[in-house]
């Protein structure tokens, strides 16, 4: 069993960061990179064995749109990996996974939760390619293709894997229910894209309601399964606030259940914290 980290942006906000920005946590690569390193260290201290980098929204086009040059943007993407590596080395052990967020994260229009894109598979491969190759050569242990809402985007990422044959990755989908990723494709079909790919170490789900996870685990075949859902809270877009309260102890107990159901990697996504990860560790230890 591998314990992943939790919500990086969530913890950065708890540490005082203002992330009300299209760049989200990647904003701190410009403004306060040391806080990112501290957040990684806090997750390692809580029991996480993997640090997922602050590159989810750190694309070349996003930084260029902010007014930076392409060379500056590339350095910031590499910095996201270096900060996680530094935290790992300070902690003494762990894995660094370079986050590859979906095209919709760059659009910042909610399409990362629907897969309703204005690009086809070829266009998505072209959009991801430059960052992909930067991260593949960054020194990260693997690439974390995460919150993927679209079958076409998954196919595009598979093509990029083939361009970097020495690169390992995991692929994690965002899902609308217990059977389908967010564009409506059955999770079984989406996962099957990578079942025979030796570069892919695991396939799973993230940024998905915890109640859907057991059903989704049952439908993934051919690879070790990962599950790192959000906290179970819901976002009130009108009033711009989170509703509900996810108890870390309950989340830890649920994660132990996902492990028993077959998940080989467990952790958290949006609105989860180091305490959620600590509780996962405790429940796995005592379960």
UniProtKB/TrEMBL annotation:
Cited NCBIfam families: PRK09485.1 (NF007020)
InterPro entries attached to this UniProt entry: BHMT-like, HCY_dom, HCY_dom_sf, Hcy_S-methyltransferase
Gene3D superfamilies referenced in this protein's UniProt entry, alphabetically: Homocysteine-binding-like domain (3.20.20.330)
Name the UniProt record assigns to this protein: S-methylmethionine:homocysteine methyltransferase
Gene Ontology biological process: methionine biosynthetic process; methylation; S-methylmethionine cycle
Residues the entry annotates as binding Zn(2+): 207, 269-270
UniProt keyword list: Metal-binding, Methyltransferase, Transferase, Zinc
Residue intervals of the Hcy-binding domain: 1-284
Residues in coiled coil: none
Record bears the keyword Zinc-finger: no
Record GO terms (molecular function): S-adenosylmethionine-homocysteine S-methyltransferase activity; zinc ion binding
The protein's required cofactors: Zn(2+)
SUPFAM superfamilies registered for this protein in UniProt: Homocysteine S-methyltransferase
Pfam families listed in its UniProt record: S-methyl_trans
């Amino acid at each position: 069993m591998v314990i992943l980290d939790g919500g990086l942006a969530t913890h950065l906000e708890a540490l005082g960061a203002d992330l009300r920005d299209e760049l989200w946590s990647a904003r701190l690569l410009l403004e306060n990179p040391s806080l990112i390193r501290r957040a990684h260290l806090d997750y390692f201290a809580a029991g996480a064995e993997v640090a997922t980098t602050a590159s989810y929204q750190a694309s070349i086009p996003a930084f260029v749109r902010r007014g930076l040059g392409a060379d500056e943007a590339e350095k910031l993407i590499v910095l996201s990996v270096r900060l996680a590596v530094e935290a790992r080395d300070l902690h003494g052990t762990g894995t660094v996974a370079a986050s590859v967020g979906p095209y919709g994260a760059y659009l910042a229009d909610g399409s990362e939760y629907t897969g309703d894109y204005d690009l086809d598979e070829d266009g998505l491969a072209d959009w991801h390619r430059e960052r992909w190759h930067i991260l593949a050569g960054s020194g990260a242990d693997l690439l974390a293709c995460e919150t993927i809402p679209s079958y076409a985007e998954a196919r595009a990422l598979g093509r990029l894997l083939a361009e970097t044959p020495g690169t390992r990755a995991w692929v994690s989908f965002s899902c609308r229910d217990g059977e389908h990723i967010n564009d409506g494709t059955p999770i079984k079909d989406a996962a099957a894209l990578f079942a025979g790919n030796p570069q892919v170490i695991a396939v799973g789900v993230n940024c998905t309601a915890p109640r859907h996870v057991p059903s989704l685990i049952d439908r993934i075949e051919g690879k070790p399964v990962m599950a790192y859902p959000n906290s179970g809270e819901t976002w009130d877009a009108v009033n711009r606030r989170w509703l509900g309260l996810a108890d870390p102890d309950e989340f830890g107990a649920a994660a132990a259940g996902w492990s028993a159901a077959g998940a080989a990697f467990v952790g958290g996504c949006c609105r989860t914290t180091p305490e959620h990860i600590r509780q996962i560790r405790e429940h796995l230890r005592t379960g």
